[in-house]
Amino acid sequence: MGWMNDLKRGLQQLSKPMQPRAERRTASSLAARLGSDSASTPAGIKDISASGIYMFTGKRLPTGELITLTLEEKGASENSSEHKFSVDARVARQGKDGIGLSFVLPPGLDSDLWGVLVRNIVVLTNRDQIAHMFRTLRTFLFVCRLCQSGAEEALALLGGELDSNRTATVVNMALATENLLASEADADRMRAHPKLVANILREGSWAPDDLTKQLWTGLLISSCSVNAPDDSNQIFVNLLIHVTPIQARILCHACERAKGSAPGAGNSPSDSVVLNPEEMIALTGVYDLTRNATDLAYLFNLGLIQRLFDFTSYHAIEGFDVTPSNLGIALYKHCHGSREMIEPDLVESANAHLLTFLPPPQPVAQYQNFFIDGQNPPSPPSSSGR
């Protein structure tokens, strides 16, 4: 996996200056088009480097003009968006048989790292590795477009911070987000808070099943907007990291069943959602009804369903009340791409419930000087506040 080592070194050496002249290479595995839509013009590639590309084409463009250049894996399906990527380029010079273009990188994408990516995509010969490199490079470009100059933390996830399985999940989440955003108006203007993007990708990389991955992807989509990016969705990140795959199945089913809980509708369910034991087993795949009840208690303690299961009764379990709370519906909707404003009372409720899972840090710093001076620290305030 030498190409991955190159990628890691590229991320570790972002502060080093570029070489005076980027090495030019032939690109037999690449095809190119001037433009990014169906009207784009195919062109041959003479050579490519980290700084630019020379293309064989009879089309003449004014020197200095900014264009969109699409590079794709030669022989890939025309409908395979993951095996191609687009990048801005400026016409640098005219030749007898074509034009020379210089790459115009998106904010946040370091030129040294770009050089590593371009080199790998040219020198690799294994088709699986080439396909993986295309997906990785496309992910880098997408993350940079979302986060602009603050993309470093998110990019580091792709360069060795995570293991191969988690890295693959991050790539899948990012590309799924890009594809789904493409159908929205002003998709190219979508931006997101860099720290929030990094947190969603990092935590979502642990997702063990398709449903949970879809929820994390939906949360990333809802974090993108043409407005000034904010990190308001962080409260849903804090909630979702505590939800297991089975609990996610229960919550999604409850929200889909609750009247008015579909994405885009109101927040307050008017009908209770109660499952009989057979329905619960069919939903979770777990035959232990006590275990299912425990998952409901967990969702209740997170504030995501309305009622706590009654563990004090000795009667046989006849039903499971899974009616979602307003907070549960808000989480569901934002994990399906909703960009509704988060009500302050829901944020307050979420933070209150999260305290049972994430105790606040103890105020130890204020006692430091007492230890240094050899004195006994003061007693911390009691829980009664007196």
Radius of gyration: 26 Å
CATH homology superfamily of the largest domain: predicted glycosyltransferase like domains
Strand order within the widest beta sheet: 1-2-3-6-5-4
Q: How much of the residues is beta strand, in percent?
A: 5-15%
Q: How many structurally independent domains? A: 2
User: What is the terminal separation in angstroms?
Assistant: 61 Å
Question: Which percent bin holds the helix content?
Answer: 40-55%
Assign the structural class, choosing from mainly alpha, mainly beta, alpha/beta, alpha+beta, or little secondary structure: alpha+beta
Under the CATH scheme, which architecture of the largest domain would be assigned?
A: Beta Barrel
Largest sheet: 6 strands, antiparallel, barrel
Shape descriptor reads: elongated
CATH class value of the largest domain: Mainly Beta
Overall strand count: 8
Compressed to H and E, one letter per element, the order equals HEEEEEEHHHHHHHHEHHEHHH
Q: Count of helices?
A: 14
List strands and helices in order, with pairings.
Blueprint lengths: L1 H11 L17 E5 L6 E8 L3 E5 L9 E8 L10 E11 L3 E7 L6 H13 L3 H21 L4 H10 L2 H18 L12 H11 L5 H13 L11 H7 L4 H13 L16 E2 L1 H8 L4 H13 L18 E2 L4 H9 L9 H11 L13 H5 L14
Antiparallel strand pairs: 1-2, 1-4, 2-3, 3-6, 4-5, 5-6, 7-8
